[in-house]
Amino acid sequence: MHHAAFKQTRLMRYALSAAIAAALAPSHALAQDAAAAAPQDTAPAESSATTLDAVVVSGTARFKGLRKRDASFSITTASLEQIQEAVPLSTADALKVVPGIWAESAGGSTGANIFVRGMPSEGDAPFVTVQMDGAPLFPPPTLSFLENSTLFRMDDTIDRMEVLRGGPSPIFSNGQPGATVNFIQKKGGEEPAGSVRVGIGSDNLRRVDLFNSGKLGEGWYYSVGGFYRSTDGVRDTQFPADKGGQLSATLTHSWDKGEITVYARHTDDKNAFFTPIPLLSRNNGGSLSSFPGLDAQTGTLLGNDFRHVTIPTGPNGQTISRDLADGRGINLDVFGASMDFYAGDWTISDRVNFVSGSAPTNGLFTGASPQTLGSFIAGYGSAGTATYVNGDGAVDPNQQVLTAGFWVVDKEIESFTNDLRFSKDLFEGNTLTAGVYFAKYSSKDTWYLGNNMLLTAQNNARRINLTLADGRQVTRDGFTGTSFFSLRGDYDGQNTAVFLADEWQINDRLRLDGGIRYEWQQVDGTVHDTATVDLDGNPNTLYDNATSISLPSSRRIDQDDKHFSWTLGLNYKLNDSSSVFARANSGYKLPTFDALRDGNNKVQEIDQYELGFKSGNSVYDLYLTAFYNSFTNSPFQAFLDDGTNFTTAGDSRAYGIEVEGAVRPVGGLELALTGVWLDAKYENYREFTGNQVMRQPKQQFRFTPSYFWTLPFGDLKIFATYSRIGDRFADLANTQKLPSYETLDVGANMHVGDNWEFALSGSNVTNELGLTEGNVRVPGAATGGVFMGRPIAGRSYLFSAAYKW
Known about the structure:
Number of strands: 46
Largest sheet: 22 strands, antiparallel, barrel
CATH architecture: Beta Barrel
Radius of gyration: 27 Å
Helix content: under 10%
GO molecular function: siderophore uptake transmembrane transporter activity
Pfam families: Plug, TonB_dep_Rec_b-barrel
Protein name: Trehalose-regulated TonB-dependent outer membrane receptor
Keywords: Cell outer membrane, Ion transport, Iron, Iron transport, Membrane, Receptor, Signal, TonB box, Transmembrane, Transmembrane beta strand, Transport
Domain TonB-dependent receptor-like beta-barrel: 376-765
């Protein structure tokens, strides 16, 4: 953005502002139509720089711009600059700006667990769909070891983020009842635009972002950009924790009757994956500190000692070799298009994409708490000799050790989605939309879970070999076991849905909308049978006596499901600055591959109710949303430390209040607050009935004061964010308490002249020790003494300089 324009709308970057509306209005026909959707009494630029006048397309039947003050649903918007000011460590971490969403992003750049409004799950993100330009990246929001945010990398090709919670979401696209996160890409315009951004960070981060866009010819526009990044990571892994990049391009053609944009994106990125580590705990988690030899803020068990491993997988010498640095990365191609055009009295819109690639997991999964090596050996009822695998002789019997598994999950995924809609004005103020959604997708999986190693409990752990005095060999190259759960599966799914939606602006004050959807799903696949064998037939080699292997024989999964959903909402304008809305919907979540494989074949049913108040002007903005939801047939699944695949199912309910607001009392000062209070409990859930829904805090909030100055050479903004995350429980039984914690992030942005931008930010500058995850793989593990938990990253800093035109 040029300096002059930036000064004119200086509140844009820190008030969730009308910059979004401006971004929707290039000189393309359909974008002009979107801007025209707002009432004709739209305020002038300065006063319209408020959240209520921001224009959104997510959650609308026609992909047509709607001002947030007129929307009968909860939606949070953020420009690229606002996302950067939140100092996110990953795509999932950017969702911390959204009230009602809790993202456990301490696992690194990918592989987050994301929770929405008390909706129950054991992890990953079954109630979060990530879209690009309105098309889901992968129709099932979660498969085992894969959730949608892992498939997306943010860079300077992104214009903004829109996050819809509940509302009409169960009707459109893939019918996500939870949260739909829609990233809108930048497109080319009449004037050339671009940027070069260079970033360096305290974790040896080196990053370059590029973007360029412009006009190719009359009615033709382009954009191209991407990033490359390498970093040692927030924890010292002894190898690059994140390394890779992305390239994206769009081509837009607009004419009097419509617009079409096609896009392509290739991402090749490797990301280390962090799981719980041992910590010291007092007072049932009330006081946490680092385990001796393993720093909670910067340490990790990962390291070069077992970065490269060879794992036996079959009785005839079959092996696989893996690199821990591959982590939970992706090698993914995305091709898509968005089309909007007029045909007589009809508006026709289509969102289509094709996704293909791999999303592996190569990670260290921890289990039971550490013990001394001497105690570990005594458990075998014999004396023994322990040596380091990679030299340095014998290991001290007092050395703290633990077992942890090198889990391998290979996933090859592919999907095609198409969302086609036809809209027509039936009469003044009323528009009917009919649509059809089609998705076809597949996942080819090969798993080797387990592969436990005997490790020193310290930063960059080392493998230990152990031979017992009675001749038994406990380890092979430090491995105490092989795979306890092997899987070969090949799955296909197909979803078809038809939906009907109506929007009716009854008068200047009252707006109604409603919709119905009917969807049918077909899932089929092949899962190979398994057997447990002694790989070498020698009972004295304990490390391979109970190896899970895949057999040539297989079983079929074949299930069809059908379901109906509906929504009804209204928005009533109290006056020029305030309105209220109410919403009810009934949605569902159809069982996916992994649920069917584990025998959880029931459809989850979700009823949601919302009541909201919105008010704002040039001085303040306020959103208050009360919500209630109820669930039936909510499944739970976890692979326990002993190899057991534990599953159960039941019901739940949740209610709470979200707040999102900002006040600008004087000059460039803004005080912003987002937060949620939540009460979520299990119902009809075996012995867990009445317990708090696991892993979701009862309360969390973020307070962000900022100040903006216009300077002779440009402008400067400084800001800080104080966050508080409340108590949670890591398990169904509510025995593993995860204590509350607070963090502080700081930052500054400066624009110099028309072209230069400089930014400095610090994350967790107080070096707070907070936990996002306990150890669900050890049921009943309490937070006393030594505790396995996944702490947030310690302090880190980032500086970037950008040249824009």
